[in-house]
Design a protein that fits this description.
Layout lengths: L1 H4 L16 H11 L3 E6 L5 E4 L3 H4 L2 H4 L19 E5 L1 H6 L11 E3 L1 E8 L7 E10 L1 H9 L10 E8 L6
């Protein structure tokens, strides 16, 4: 669970590698994947936009040659699959948010770009590949419930590259 929680702290100062299939990924999304999802909430207060798991499964083959693998969103009972974080469970607790009336609402978003970052607090992971999105309705939901603007771009993580423990 710790690995999963740290995904919410990727740096906004990202870089995109030159040989990365960025445009191919964006083109695939725009031609094949829905740009909307449904607002959901876990029992522990994590609020997210549930997006099509094909954001991970269909895009994975485009990044595996670069050393990325599936993110850990399918490996345990509480895993939520492909998603966009709206409110962390820590934020729900800190701001005393129990009920979200928009749960179940379909929310559109617009894909912006593919980024690769070195997450400083994601133990054992060298890089994270994700798709950033614009989602004004998600910003409005955060504001409605008294949360500050999100520290990071709304995004869908599509792959992680773990440290090679045997590299010298």
């Amino acid at each position: 669970m710790e690995l999963y929680n740290n995904l919410n702290f990727v740096s906004k100062s990202a870089y995109v590698t030159a040989a990365f299939p960025n445009q191919e990924i964006i083109d695939y999304i725009e031609g094949n994947l829905p740009q909307s999802g449904y607002l959901r909430k876990t029992e522990d207060g994590f609020v997210y936009l549930d997006v099509d798991d094909d954001y991970i499964y269909k895009l994975n083959h485009l990044i595996t040659a670069k050393g990325f693998e599936l993110p850990p969103y399918f490996n345990w009972t509480m895993a939520v699959g492909a998603h966009i974080t709206v409110m962390t469970k820590e934020e729900s607790l800190k701001y005393g948010i129990d009920e979200i009336e928009e749960i179940g609402l379909q929310v559109p978003f617009k894909v912006k770009e593919c980024q690769v970052v070195h997450p400083p607090s994601f133990t054992g992971v060298e890089e994270v590949c994700f798709i950033t999105v614009e989602a004004p309705e998600l910003d409005a939901i955060r504001e409605k419930y008294g949360l500050p603007p999100a520290l990071y771009d709304f995004h869908i993580t599509i792959g992680v590259k773990r440290y090679d423990a045997f590299a010298i």
